Amino acid sequence: MLVQTVPIRHPLTLAAEPLTPSSFAPFGAVLTNPAPEKLPHATPASALPQGVGAVAANQGTAIQYRALAPPLRDLYAQAPSGRSSSPRTTMFVCGARSLVPSKQDGGRFEVKILERHPFTTQTFVPLGGAGSEARYLVIVAPSLAPDAGSAVERQLPVPLGDSALPGRGMPDLSKLRAFVASGSQAVTYGAGTWHAPMAALGTAGTAIDFVVMQFANDVPVEDCQEVALEAETKGETKEDAPRIWVSVPGPPKLSRL
Length: 257
Hints:
Shape: globular
Distance between the termini: 50 Å
CATH class: Mainly Beta
Radius of gyration: 20 Å
Order of helices and strands: EEEHEEEEEEEEHEEEEEHEE
Number of domains: 1
Strand content: 35-45%
Number of helices: 3
CATH superfamily: Ureidoglycolate hydrolase
Helix content: under 10%
Oligomer: single chain
Structural class: mainly beta
């Protein structure tokens, strides 16, 4: 549900960086195999990775990682509507986004919308798997401190009493970050984290299938809050108005055997 238009006062171009668990930690969690070189048939229990809850499973034919990321969160008990939520597993078939050609990189992606889910985490799992050449953009922003003078923000439903949650504030566009994820990486957005809608990368006409897991109660303003990013013009033409761009690196070159 669109709740506000946020003005873009200054042009911004940010470089998309590789997605890693540590770089994304302020915004959620990255789910990926922490030790792809460790295979069940050749890894004794003593050699399993530490700190990720690694245990042998399935009669020794699998490695289970029990502590890759914080648990999924359902905060709808605090929603003002009082309507309970249910867990949802859906699929998003995301077509590759068109990039503006650039000589310096693989192209540029314009950020026009950010959204957040204040009462739930949201996990995107691409179905490409290890070895997939699929790539997608993960674009996130922290929240500004709530504006006490904003009538819109005062009316936005968000969980209360947890200082670790972002709160009612609008996205801080000056601290926007962008990451390039591979097909072997899934991502969980923390509850209330501002993020762009999924942006699949690839050639025109291709798509990436994502399994999406979250909670929802079907109250639009509690399930999803969107802001449109609109240039603040001071006499400029539409083409010259400030915009937000993500500089996307080209796809990695495949090695020739």
